[in-house]
Amino acid sequence: MLRILIRKELLDNLLNLRFIALCAVAIILIVSSIVVLTEQYRIEMNDYYNRVSAQDTFIDRYGHTNRIEWMSALFREPSRYRPLVLGIDRDASQENFVSNPVPALVSKLDLVAIVATIMSLIAIILSHNAISGEREDGMLKLMLSTSISRSTILFGKFIAGIITLSVPFTLGVLIGIAYVSLSTGIDFDGINTGVVASLLSLSYLYITAFYALGLLFSARSRTSNVAILKSLFAWVVLVLVLPNISPFLAAQVYTIPSRAKIDRELTKIESDDRDQIVRERTRQLLQSEFSDLESIQSTTRSDLQKRIESDASFRERYAGYRKAWDELVRQVNIEQRKIGNAIREDFGIRSKNQELLATTLASLSPLSNFVFAATDAADVGLESDAEWESQAGRFNRSYAAYVEKRYSEEKQKNPAFTPNDYLDLRGRPKYQFQPPPLSVRFARILVPTAILAGFTLLFFAAAFVSFLRYDVR
């Protein structure tokens, strides 16, 4: 009997003009979104390679110790899943070589956004009259007059509804993936297939949650008009209100300055103030311990180099000064970095607390859990961003050690060598982000996926109980 009911519901949906129109809209949106984002991905990949190439050329020609940190700013290669999931834009502060302001004014729709808003709304529209509509038509009373149980009717409608929603959605995604594969050469096998399968599974679960929500309000309403109003109100609260108000509420609890303000403060402390302190202490060093070398401040580099090569006693004395000066600079750097690191640490703690509170509040919505899980599965979410920062931090420390070693080697060759002189870094290590394996990604998305599944079970259980008590008269 359940099979017959499912077949009946499928036929009713397939012959429903509203269903056909909504499915056509969904397919067109999904395919067009993937096509647009694929072209954007190709532009961003080209821009990424241009950045890396320009940076390498600049360091090879003009690299020096004093400013190597900002010269070697790390770029992350755009995710290969960017045609499907945009996620966090890690290079938001970087300007593209080809600057186009229009995309910044027009929001992009990726697969996650389409599922989160459009597909959930379609699920609500298709399910709101599944019970109340048939009560109005008299079909529900007629079915219950036979031997069909209420649970069979509800399961039949639920299963048929999920199938009818999943088929056009899956078709649109597969067409889009085929386009991505053909236009970019990305091979969807192995880990890529696992990621796509995860995205599809999460999408099915999220759509199912909202279809069950529509069934719930349909089973708690006497008419379809009332059911759609209740369903849309719940959709607005769960999709638009809760996810958007959560960061605002968290920001009221944990107030932090803007990132731009922190960066300006750090630049002043670790660059401008540091240089001023170095100049002042250099003057004091020359006056107190190396007064006989005070004249070198007005000596040209070429004259200084000639004197070092011709006068052994001066060379030894200058080498002592340079050693003292290097120690002076090292101490100043340690002092200023200590101040800067304290600011970074405080900002990081407050940011983490704000993010944790916002994430917890947002988890009261199925949308947020779906977005958290989908973006982390595609390695463009919050956890993935933290992993990128961790790997970048480890690389920067090893890179700094390499630069320090090269500087020491040059100092041994030439005592007059300064941090502002050209330093050959052509043998430097290159950064390459290592994406986490599927097992790690699955572990990350376990909690939001479980919460999303909990919402689905809660909505369906409430719909089931409501329908058992539903007055069909």
Order of helices and strands: HHHHHHHHHHHHHHHHH
C-alpha geometry: elongated
Largest sheet: none
Total count of strands: 0
- Please state roughly what percent of the residues sit in beta strands, choosing from under 5%, 5-15%, 15-25%, 25-35%, 35-45% or over 45%: under 5%
Which bin fits the share of residues in helices? over 70%
User: How many H/I helical runs?
Assistant: 17
Distance between the termini: 23 Å
Going by helix content, strand content and strand pairing, the class is mainly alpha
Please mark out the parts with pLDDT under 50 across 5 or more consecutive residues, or reply none.
92-106
Rg, alpha carbons: 31 Å
Mean pLDDT: 85
* Structural domain tally: 2
Quick description:
The protein is built from 17 helices and no strands. With 473 residues, the chain is mainly α. The longest helix is centred in the last third of the chain and has 51 residues, at 312-362.
